[in-house]
Amino acid sequence: MASLNKMIIIGNLGADPEVRYLDGGAVVATFNVATTEKFTNRNGEKVEQTEWFRIELWNEQAKVAEKYLKKGNSVYVEGRLRTETWTDKEGKERTSLRVRANTMQLLGSPNSDRSDEVPYEAPRQQVAPAQPASAPRPQAAPAPRQQPAGTPERRREPEPVPFESNSGDDDLPF
Fold first, then answer.
1. Residue among 59, 60, 74, 56 nearest 17 (CA)
2. Contact call for residues 30 and 69 (beta carbons, < 8 A)
3. What DSSP assignment string belongs to 9-23?
């Protein structure tokens, strides 16, 4: 049976990221992101509920976080939920949840009203799945047509690439 562990969070940083450089050369950045939900309860009162998430970024993305993320920034984070267990000073076993992010995108800051600000997207640390050998290979697009000399240039829509399928109904998994 398939399984999925995926968190998507859009919120604001509660503080600047804490960045640590480890002995083996790895870099880890941790920070808190707040999400806020606003709604009206049964009594007609406006309620604001905030949830805090502990985020962890590694290596190149941690360096990007150190350089670009600041308290109050809006950020998009995608990753996996991780459970951590440890023993505190009194000897009690404690558990916490953390999001190990593999995608982070800076959305801007709440104090920024610049419309020319372009969000920075950190490089993904995922490997694209290999294409199966039996999958049809994409065909190259046809070469553009040349205009005869002296003819006014017109914009043309690109010609669609024909789709060829060599699979039948018997190949469907259901």
1. 56
2. no
3. EEEEESSPPEEEE-T
Q: What domains are there in the chain, each with its CATH number?
A: 7-36+47-108 (2.40.50.140)
Strand, helix or coil at 36? strand
**What would the pLDDT profile of 9-55 be if each residue is shown by its tens digit?**
999 999 999 999 999 999 999 999 999 999 999 999 999 999 999 99
* Separation between Cα atoms, residue 66 and residue 33, nearest integer Å: 15
Torsion (CA) 28, 20, 82, 109 in degrees, nearest 10: -70
Nearest Cα neighbor of 17 from 27, 29, 9, 33 is: 29
Decide if 102 contacts 80 (C-beta within 8 A): yes
Tens-digit pLDDT profile for residues 67-102: 999 999 999 999 999 998 989 999 999 999 999 999
- Measure CA 84 to chain center: 22
